[in-house]
Task: structure prediction
Amino acid sequence: MLVEPLLRPAREVPAFTLVELTAHMRRLLAERGEPLAPAWPEIAAERLRTGELDGWVAEEAGRPVALVLFSRREHRAYGHLHVEAKEARVPLSRRLTLHALHHMDPAILRADLGTTGLSEVEDRELGGALTQTPGFEVVERHGLLRTLQLDEPPRTPELPPGYEFLPISAAPLDALDALDRRAFRGGADESLVADSPEGNRRVLERILSGELGRFLPEASAAVARGEELVAFLLTTEESARAGVFADLAVDPAHRRRGIAGALLQQGLRALLALGYGSARLWVTASNTPARELYRRVGFERERTAFIFRWRKPR
Ligand SMILES: CC(C)(COP(=O)(O)OP(=O)(O)OC[C@H]1O[C@@H](n2cnc3c(N)ncnc32)[C@H](O)[C@@H]1OP(=O)(O)O)[C@@H](O)C(=O)NCCC(=O)NCCS
Result:
């Protein structure tokens, strides 16, 4: 007889069991270029125990086989589903996700959920299953890779006349933040990372402070025309071998002039000079301008991940 896995609140699950799950989850995230701090598994387990993070664990014959966790910020929740079950993985994922949302603070109006442990095919199936529930949509994201070789250095970047590169340290946080919001407004990624001005600024601060991987000012840059900041590229370290383009923004009034292309060439050359063997980044599948830009500078798709987005039906 098939016994349905038992769903338990994570705060009732022993810390060492939670750490097994969160450590595996962290490893899978790191493997696909989304590093978390080394101490994250223990910190997350502790926060699950205290209820600071919402979480549910699925158990099969007393063994933990999946975890879903959410952090809350105002009316929004950011979650992650990690699956280790051997069988019926997609139905279990759907059940665990819906169960967690059902038990979440009613003040939460919106939740974004990533996954680890599922194959691309299973993720797509899960997307199909979840979107049958009102309020769900699936955001497909592509992890891109560009390898770097000394005998084939990236092109020398060329900006259009009147524009100049500035070191990223010359661009104040306020100006980066304002430009970032201007650039993403109305586009495919508008609310992917942050949906409030404070949230956007916080993400930039996290990138610049190295919280999301060591910040690489040498491989980051800004572009100005006169006094006006018109574009920037922020680059972090993923590992000793790879850099990550964490944010790229060009002011809408200055697009299609080759500025983003030049920034990327500049970033790639700097990464190569610093000894990195590749550059990685994530792009939303529906962001056609960015995908076309990255294809032009030699990035190729390495992996696909999904964000399951839920908005509370009114
Ligand atoms: C994506 C973005 C950075 C491109 O900036 P840009 O300075 O206009 O890009 P470039 O002028 O260097 O474009 C280089 C090439 O990319 C492609 N491209 C750029 N914008 C495009 C668009 N709207 N549609 C189709 N292709 C486009 C083209 O191949 C272009 O070459 P071409 O102009 O000779 O045809 C800019 O649109 C932007 O800031 N978007 C919002 C933020 C964002 O999505 N950032 C990336 C997140 S991963």
Remarks:
- The first helix runs from residue 15 to 31.
- The mean pLDDT is 94.
